[in-house]
Design goal:
- The chain is mainly beta.
- The protein contains 3 helices and 37 strands.
- The protein has a 22-stranded mixed β-sheet that branches. A 4-stranded mixed β-sheet has the order 8-9-3-12, with no helix packed on it. A 4-stranded antiparallel β-sheet has the order 29-28-31-34, with no helix packed on it.
- A hairpin with a 2-residue loop joins β6 and β7.
- The radius of gyration is 25 Å and the shape is globular.
């Protein structure tokens, strides 16, 4: 992976950051449940001295990263290439960025200068960009990079010429027979039966809501009282002439033993499925999508699985000094059209296992799932454990919100289960805002503070993702309101101007990514879907902005 050369040398040099250098040796400090008093600090705004042993000559890679040949050393080319994945192969489309042009912010100590580029064939060109790190802004996302060519495009399933409706909900007309006997939901650990939809031709995954009561043991569903919620966004228009079809998968409940306290455990996995014939359908929010077919047994995979949950709960206090373990979840997920380029898009689940809140025991079972998809598709395994803190909103309302982070690992399924599942990387440590522990609820003193941290105690870090979630009092929830991506050797960053809105309530989540194929500087969004990929979060308490 090509990274900005943030120099980390022992003794004579220090950790290079976007606001200068910290004290020599601070990368060796430890976090043992609460931020250390002598943890990483930032200089006051307007004063950005360099640490002992550092120079202001820029990074050793001032000429740009490898692969930028042909672009002048003072220029940056930004492209936006969408890659479409279908059963016939991959195609690319260069997107027009003129409606929402990217911007570059160049840091100068505690201030920034804004550079505006211009359209060129195939992209957006910035000139006069000095050597060293800059912030590339696209929408509400910032990428810290030293590369002279950055592609901000994404991967997408389905045909490039797919037309999308304005709707993400549609009524359904279901006529499904030969189903496995239906089981109703009892709890998160005993999930019962359910239906999911996915397409191999267009980008659509959705969960089915059934508003009629289905008796236990029923093997047929005939109803107009159902609805599709599309988890992939707006529902595409289906064209029979293009072969557009849908898989309907029935997930059934299977036993998974008992917890140490005797609680009965279960999981959901694909049991039967059918791919309905090609059809025409234009979603309008009123007309039901017709789905009829004879459900068939699917090819099955049975496997041994060991999940070492205490290895996750041990890191709770690194995520936040007041964090408690929340929900452990494990999934087997279809990877449309294979995994050569990673896990592209989302096509539902083949298996979902959710264990009780705060579970901390070694889970060992033989599990199984069915798979209706083509043999050319892959299967990805994903194990995740979330952590949370309940905090009172500092606005006098008395409302409480849940702040959360997680530790997860995804990989090709057989690779993931080849050994006991446990964390590959731990949370970043000693998360701070302008040198004050981020677990302290307070008003920050500046509009663009310095966020600092120590690297995780376990695992390698290829990239960081710093997300800010803003409180919306109307619905008493927190919504992502800005994201910043950084190279894995960064340990602090000054926020660019305007990233935090004034007089607002936020919390932040810093994710450390261990992904050998993740090229955060040159190709941040295509390569984030590479496998394997592990991440761990540290998160702050609520804070307010001036």
């Amino acid at each position: 992976m090509r990274w900005l050369k943030w120099s980390v040398l022992v003794g004579s040099t220090c950790v290079m950051t976007l606001v200068g250098c910290g004290s020599p040796g601070q990368e060796g400090q430890e976090f043992t449940g609460s931020p250390a008093p002598n943890g990483p600090s930032s200089e006051s705004p307007g004063s950005e001295p360099l640490g002992e042993g550092c120079s202001d000559a820029g990074t050793p890679d001032d000429a740009g990263t490898p692969g930028d040949a042909g672009i002048p050393s003072d220029a940056v080319l930004v492209t936006n290439t969408t890659r479409f994945y279908t059963s016939e192969g991959t195609s690319e489309r260069v997107e027009d960025m003129s409606a929402r042009p990217p911007e570059i912010y160049v840091p100068h100590g505690s201030t920034f200068s804004l550079l505006l580029g211009s359209a060129v064939p195939g992209g957006w060109l910035f000139t006069g960009v000095p050597s060293g790190p800059y912030y590339l802004r696209t929408g509400s996302t910032y990428i810290v990079s030293n590369a002279r060519h950055v592609d901000v495009g994404i991967n997408k399933l389905g045909r490039p010429d797919t037309v999308y409706s304005e709707h993400y909900l549609t009524p359904l007309q279901l006529n499904l027979v030969n189903m496995a006997p239906w089981t109703n939901w009892s709890s998160a650990s005993l999930p019962g039966s359910s239906l999911q939809l996915a397409s191999a031709q267009v980008d659509l995954y959705g969960a089915v809501s059934l508003f009629d009561f289905i008796p236990d043991g029923e093997t047929r569903i005939l109803t107009l009282n159902a609805e599709l919620w599309a988890g992939t966004g707006n529902i595409p228009i289906f064209e029979a002439s293009r072969g557009d079809r849908l898989y309907v998968s029935q997930h059934s409940q299977y036993p998974a033993g008992t917890a140490p306290d005797g609680t009965e455990l279960g999981y959901s996995a694909v049991d039967r499925a059918v791919e309905v014939g090609a059809f025409d359908f234009t979603p309008d929010g009123v007309t039901p999508m017709p789905l009829a077919g004879v459900m068939q047994p699917t090819r099955r995979t049975e496997f041994p699985f060991e999940w070492r949950l205490p290895a996750y709960t041990a890191w709770a206090l690194d995520a936040h000094p007041l964090a408690t373990p929340s929900i452990p979840s494990f999934y087997a997920i279809p990877a449309a059209h294979g995994t050569n380029d990673g896990w592209i898009g989302y096509s539902g689940e083949l298996l979902t296992l959710q264990l009780p809140r705060a579970a901390s025991f070694n889970f060992t079972q033989r599990l199984q799932f069915g798979n209706p998809f083509p043999s050319t598709w892959g299967v990805v395994g994903l194990g995740s454990y979330s952590f949370r803190v309940l905090e009172t909103v500092p606005d006098g309302s008395g409302q409480r919100v849940s702040l959360s982070g997680s530790i997860s690992t995804s990989d090709e399924f057989n690779s993931l289960i080849a050994s006991p599942l446990q964390p590959r990387v731990s949370p970043p440590r000693a998360l701070a805002i302008d040198g004050v522990p981020a677990s302290t609820q307070r008003e920050v003193g500046a509009a663009n503070p310095v966020i600092s941290w120590l690297p995780p105690a376990q695992g390698s870090v290829n990239a960081y993702r710093l997300a800010f979630l803003r409180y919306n009092p109307e619905v008493n929830t927190l919504l992502t309101d800005g994201v910043l991506y950084l190279p894995g050797s960064a340990t602090q960053v000054r926020l660019p101007p305007g990233m935090l809105k004034p007089d607002s309530i936020y919390y932040m989540r810093l994710s450390a990514y261990d992904g050998p194929g993740y090229d955060i500087e040159r190709d941040p969004f295509h390569t984030r879907e590479a496998l394997p990929m592990a991440h761990a979060d540290a998160f702050s308490s609520l804070f307010t902005t001036p």
